[in-house]
């Protein structure tokens, strides 16, 4: 062996690199295109399992079980666990891993296409379920669509505990009106109360991603945080305001279909909002008032 090769090997060992088989982790070759960064840190796994609110009365829907790091510990706490995985090659190993656990169902499906309401109704029909908890170490490339699908279209979910890229978590966890927020901040806070479960630095995964992560828990509100005449229109205003966040609200919203500067200026005045303010400075209640007044114009 050449000395070059030898020093490369020693370097890997020094870094504490996981010994790699030709098949990667646990016999599985992680697929980047599916966001496969598997959790290998027991502390983070414990924090998610203990922090997600699952108990013997809970239906847990796990998104992207992967090689099952969370699946078995979740199934031990939950009344029933439905794990939804897109990668067909992981389905059989997951069924083997959970063999003998009669409260587990492994579902081969894209979470964005799954009829979540139908699944919840079916399991509630069969088992004594009193809460529904969604849990997952999300594939980062579809974090926002998954969260928005769960918040906007699914019914009967009590909480969502999910791992995501730290920057996205910071944006979601910001209070509406704080600079760190974005359009998604308003959507999430409208439907849910947000709390942080744990940090998950990149070393907690195999393979290690290029970014750090964080786990947030979203507890779904019984009623939305603010009253609005038309939530869709309020979110349209929020998205338009944030799509041009450097512009004043007056200028950004005037470009919306069906409005003009005069209408927006009057709606801002009726809502008690200075027309030079930008979207990122408004509270959720201010956006609700503005949207109501703009529709009435
Ligand atoms: N839960 C495992 C863990 O923590 O080690 C794996 C997490 S990995 C970040 C994301 C998982 O989501 C992968 O197993 C991937 O195959 C799966 N996935 C990707 N897109 C998906 C989709 N649209 N629907 C369901 N699962 C998906």
Description:
The strands form two sheets. This protein has a seven-stranded mixed beta sheet with strand order 4-3-2-5-6-9-7, with helices on both faces. Strands 1-8 form a two-stranded antiparallel sheet. It is α/β, with parallel strands linked by helices. It has twelve helices and nine strands. The protein has helices at residues 3-14, 42-51, 71-77, 91-97, 116-126, 143-152, 166-173, 183-191, 231-243, 249-254, 261-270, 284-296, and strands spanning 38-39, 58-63, 80-85, 104-108, 131-137, 159-165, 192-200, 205-206, 213-220. 39% of the residues lie in helices and 18% in strands. Helix 9 crosses helix 12 (284-296). The structure holds S-adenosylmethionine (SAM). Residues 34-39, 63-67, 69-70, 84-87, 110-112, 137, 139, 142 line the site of S-adenosylmethionine. S-adenosylmethionine binds next to strand 1 and strand 3.
The appropriate CATH architecture of the largest domain is 3-Layer(aba) Sandwich
CATH superfamily of the largest domain: Vaccinia Virus protein VP39
**Proportion in helices:** 25-40%
Beta-strand content:
15-25%
The CATH topology of the largest domain turns out to be Rossmann fold
Largest sheet: 7 strands, mixed
Taking the alpha carbons of the first and last residues, their distance comes to 79 Å
Name the quaternary structure. single chain
Associated small molecules: S-adenosylmethionine
List SSEs in N-to-C order: HEHEHEHEHEHEHHEEEHHHH
Q: What is the number of strand segments? A: 9
Form type:
elongated
Under CATH at level 1, the class of the largest domain stands as Alpha Beta
Global Rg: 23 Å
Order of strands across the main sheet: 4-3-2-5-6-9-7
Low-confidence stretches: 1-24
């Amino acid at each position: 062996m050449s000395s070059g090769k030898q020093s490369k090997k020693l370097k890997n060992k020094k870094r504490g690199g996981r010994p790699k088989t030709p098949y990667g982790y646990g016999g599985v070759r992680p697929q980047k295109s599916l966001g496969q960064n598997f959790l290998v840190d027991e502390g983070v796994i414990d924090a998610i399992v203990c922090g997600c609110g699952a108990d013997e009365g809970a239906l847990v829907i796990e998104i992207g079980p992967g090689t099952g790091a969370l699946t078995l510990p979740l199934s031990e706490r939950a009344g029933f666990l439905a794990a939804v995985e897109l990668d067909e090659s992981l389905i059989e190993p997951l069924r083997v891993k959970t063999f003998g656990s009669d409260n587990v169902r492994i579902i081969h499906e894209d979470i964005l296409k799954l009829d979540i309401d139908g699944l919840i109704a079916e399991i509630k029909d069969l088992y004594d379920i009193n809460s529904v908890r969604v849990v997952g170490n999300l594939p980062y490339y579809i974090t926002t669509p998954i969260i928005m699908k769960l918040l906007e279209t699914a019914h009967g979910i009590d909480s969502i505990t999910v791992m995501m890229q730290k920057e996205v978590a910071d944006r979601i966890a910001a209070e509406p009106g704080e600079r760190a927020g974005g359009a998604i901040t308003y959507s999430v806070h409208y439907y849910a109360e947000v709390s942080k479960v744990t940090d998950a630095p990149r070393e907690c995964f195999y393979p290690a991603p290029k970014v750090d992560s964080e786990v947030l828990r979203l507890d779904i509100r019984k009623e939305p945080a603010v009253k609005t005449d038309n939530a869709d229109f309020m979110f349209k205003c929020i998205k338009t305001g944030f799509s041009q966040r450097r512009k004043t609200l007056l200028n950004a919203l005037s470009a919306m279909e069906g409005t003009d500067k005069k209408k927006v200026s009057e709606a801002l005045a009726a809502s008690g909002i200075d027309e030079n303010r930008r979207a990122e400075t408004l509270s959720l209640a201010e956006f609700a008032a503005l949207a109501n007044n703009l529709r009435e114009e």
